[in-house]
Design a protein that fits this description.
It is built from ten helices and no strands. By secondary structure, the chain is mainly α. It comes from Salinicola rhizosphaerae.
Length: 257
Amino acid sequence: MRQSPTRLLERQAQRTRLQASTGWIDLTLGLALVAVMVEWVHWAFSAPDGLRFTAGGVYIAIATMVLFAWPAARRGLGWANRVTLLRATMVAVVAGLVVYPDFMQRHAEGVAALSLLSLSLDGIDGWVARRTGSASEFGARFDMELDAFFIVVLCAALIALDKVGSWVLLLGGARYLFVVAGIYWPWLNRTLPVSYFRKTVCVWQVATLLICLLPFIDSAWATAFAAMAALLLVLSFGRDVIWLWRHRLRPIEDAEF
């Protein structure tokens, strides 16, 4: 028996509401996971009491941005975005620790291990998206923005540990400067094609910053490693800017890498 159009619309609306509610549940579970990780750090390592507020605050800020950017259809996050959200909980805890350099100094291995676990999940979300057919523009943006924020957090951690000068923030701020430049030069806003070199440089940045966090890496070595990562970043951005400049007058659909 065929259903009426009204009935079909009602079922679709009900399904959309259910998907939206699962998204809220995912974000709430993420906050609960942050709380569990923070309490475990308190129990195992006597972390500062303020970590509950700093880590929780960072996660709430991330969740707020997710809600702000969530598509109007308000569909559920999906498995790929759940993996990214899991990474976000770890990044939130690391970011919450940055304001406690003395604690980070005593437990640098643990901070690096948590950061490494977050890094290891990077790429899995893309694999999950392909396997489950849930790839989306929102998911790609969520992953990219989290990567950019993670780099800023690691740069801030190195500054807090007095291993690298404040110039290292250029590694984390480069992408945001690129976004601001796009306001004045619209040709920079063209969507870039997939580049494995760009992805490799991003992973290299994070891996380098993680290595610099380790206690046996002194300031001189950390500065040298960070400088090498900065050089690769300049090459990556320079490569992309040159491509964008060359294609600034061409129709988007005709552009090729």
